[in-house]
Amino acid sequence: MGLFGAAKRGLGMLGRMGKKKPTPKPSKPEPRMGSKEWFDKQDPFVRNKVLSIRASAKRGDVHGRGGNIIATPHKERSAKTIMKRHKGSYQLHPKGGKK
Q1: Rounded distance, CA 80 to CA 60, Å?
Q2: Could you tell me which residue, 35 or 14, shows the higher pLDDT?
């Protein structure tokens, strides 16, 4: 029997080699904050920024690579044609994210 075999059997040569450390029980995860609560917690500047992004998405604005608004589609020019002319442009969803 080798040195490690003796330690594993509990002879105490190398301490607690074979025994596992007790792990603490995981605490309850905090409930996720809803978007309404998050919005209410923000300062007025952040809230206004979110509201402007939502309004822009509702209008259907086309954004460029840097996030600037290129154009707003209207009856003479659709969003599809605007996006064809500008590589990498995109429209936002009504909730504010990219498609």
Answers
A1: 11
A2: 35
How far apart, in Å, are the Cα atoms of 26 and each of 19, 29, 30, 33, 51? 21, 8, 12, 20, 38
Cβ(86)–Cβ(77) below 8 Å: no
SS3 state of residue 34: coil
**Cα angle 94, 40, 67; round to 5:** 40
pLDDT at 44 > cutoff 80 = yes
Of 7-21, 29-43, 63-77, minimum mean pLDDT range = 7-21
Query: Tokens 């080699």, residue?
Result: 17
Whole-number CA gyration radius for the chain: 29
Distance CA 25, CA 39 (A): 33
Which residues touch 64 (CB under 8 Å, ≥6 apart)? 70, 86, 88, 89
